[in-house]
Design brief:
By secondary structure, the protein is α+β, with helices and mostly antiparallel strands. It is built from three helices and six strands, in the order αααββββββ. This is Lipoprotein. Keywords: Signal.
Length: about 170
């Protein structure tokens, strides 16, 4: 009889403990950023793209630099980056020097789902393609100013570059 009362009291105490909040807190739910306006969305997209270019330039001078440029990429843009890095590595090539943004314009923003498009003019005149021996093998026909159409989407809590393609039509005002 005492054993039954002790077991019942213990069960009641455990039930009371669970009912009063001794259970672990639920995992926080990630809330994606919200933008009150297109201007806020464009500002966040521009900040993301500028951080990506900074990371890309850092990787050129220090392959172990953080953050990695690939951390800003998703989808097709990430696939292209991985493929390009693999191809360059296999051919013993690397890019040295820094790329800089000379112009960035806001093209389009939509909110359901979040998608921001930019036009970016990149100047790669300070970069060179070099082989394992350090010889400059930059193609003479390479354009040094490139107009890109860049699409960013929401990936988790941050914007990520989903696609970046060279625009054949259009020009950069430099």
């Amino acid at each position: 009889m005492i054993l039954r009362r002790t077991t019942a009291a213990l069960a009641l105490a455990l039930a009371a403990a669970f009912a009063t909040g001794c259970a672990p807190d639920p995992e926080p739910v990630e809330t994606p950023p919200t933008f009150a306006s297109e201007e806020e969305a464009f500002a966040a997209a521009e900040e993301t793209y500028r951080a990506y270019v900074d990371a890309l330039n850092s990787r050129r001078s220090d392959p172990g630099a953080r953050p990695s440029p690939s951390s800003f990429l998703i989808g097709r843009a990430l696939e292209v980056d991985v493929d390009t890095q693999t191809k360059f590595s296999q051919e013993g090539l690397s890019i040295v020097g820094a790329t800089r943004i000379v112009d960035l314009t806001h093209e389009h923003a939509s909110f359901a789902p979040l998608n921001v498009s930019l036009y970016v003019c990149l100047d790669s005149s300070a970069t060179r393609v070099v082989n394992r021996s350090g010889q400059d093998v930059t193609p003479a026909s390479r354009e040094t100013i490139t107009l890109l159409a860049v699409d960013l989407i929401l990936a988790g809590e941050d914007l990520a570059i989903e696609n970046s393609v060279t625009r054949a039509n259009g020009s950069c005002s430099v």
